[in-house]
Amino acid sequence: MSKIRKSVLAMQGYVPGRQPKGSFVKLNANENPYPPSPKALEALGQMTGDKVRLYPSSSAEELRKAAAEVFGVPFDCIVAGNGSDDIFTMIIRSILDEGDTLAVVDPTYTLYETLAEIQGAKTERHPLAEDYALPESFFESGAKLKILPNPNAQTGTLFPEADIIRLCESAQGIVVIDEAYALFAGTSSVPLLKRFKNLVVTRTMSKSHSLAGMRVGFGMSSPEIIEAFMKVKDSYNLNAASQLMAAAAIKDTEYTAGVVAKLNETRNFFAKELVSLGWQVAPSHGNFLLAKPEKGSAAEIVDYLEKEGYLVRHFETPRLKDKIRFSIGTKEQMERLIELLKKYHSEVRA
Ligand SMILES: Cc1ncc(COP(=O)(O)O)c(C=O)c1O
To answer: What integer is the mean pLDDT of 206-228?
Structure first.
């Protein structure tokens, strides 16, 4: 008899984007190809011996102050996490009891379901429509917790604000909007927090702020909900260096806006090029896009690109296995990628 919990034995665990050794253009985890704000790197200079010797602020006070100001929310309405993944852990720990239900859409970011499994909760998957619109069943579900990324993960598509409002109005429990990619879309549900006390909005510093390696994210909601998250979080969940770097990076809004504008322009260029090669491209509002080749299998193209030094993401799930998710790199990286795809279509397949 195993000493491990049954639910943990039965689960598969989350599978992150591969990190093979060697020199690759890494476009498989929606990381940012540009460095973080120079002010963030400068802030690392404050890492004195004492900063390392002592525990960091357990509530990430200075970082939360900076983030609250930038997001326009009161200080007691925000919690910081070791990446937004840590915020999802807090959400699931504090809201779902064993046997409760989490509702998600399909396709989407699969970590939510993994965390619910660890908690012994069930997950309802609601398939998105052909055009990736929300299905009626997602609004109608009585689940205690609904988590929806906007823009959606894997597809990059954006749900209209009217959908988010309808979700908050009709939900019997908590609605979480994961805004990992919101700065690329230029829209946000943060203003809705004043209106809906059952709404939680999450953000990450991993995508638009180029700090994936530092692991920083935020959750925003009513003071009562944030108080619950504070109780269940690990006591020193954010290390001192991450707190310093993220506080400097989040305040440098001008730098972030410049990086986001460059990546959006490159994404639109890459989408146009793919369409001219006959690919079907989902309209993306993130720093990545999902596309289906006209000819050739997606898995075969992913292997070909890896041999040519490009890592891109392929999911073996029914809705995604015929498609590839490309993170957006620099303009030069994406131009070279288009050249490789042209070569694949003309030479390799021929
Ligand atoms: C929708 C979505 N949410 C959250 C994350 C993870 O963010 P973090 O690095 O802040 O844990 C990702 C990562 O790819 C994502 O796609």
So the answer is: 98
Residues 194-209, mean pLDDT to the nearest whole number: 98
17-34+254-348 classified as CATH 3.90.1150.10? yes
Residue with tokens 């699931």: 92
**What is the Å distance from ligand 1's center to 84 Cα?**
6
User: For residue 10, what pLDDT band results from cuts at 50, 70 and 90?
Assistant: confident
Q: Which atom of ligand 1 is nearest to the CA of 86?
A: 11
Query: From ligand 1's centre to the CA of 180, what distance in Å?
Result: 6
Rounded CA separation 337/302 (Å): 12
CATH number of 38-251: 3.40.640.10
pLDDT band at 20 (very low <50, low <70, confident <90, very high): confident
What SS3 class is residue 2? coil
What does the alpha-carbon distance between residue 274 and residue 295 come to, in Å, rounded to a whole number? Answer: 12
- Do 73 and 203 contact (CB within 8 A), yes or no? no
CA 4 from chain center: how many Å? 30
- Listed by start position, the domains of the chain span 17-34+254-348, 38-251
Q: How far apart are CA 299 and CA 318, in angstroms?
A: 13
How would DSSP label each residue in 156-203? -----HHHHHHHHHH-SSEEEEE-TTHHHHT--SGGGGGT-TTEEEEE
Minimal-distance CA residue to ligand 1 atom 2: 180
Out of 206, 245, 328, give the residue to mutate to test ligand 1, the one with the largest number of ligand atoms within 8 Å of its CB: 206
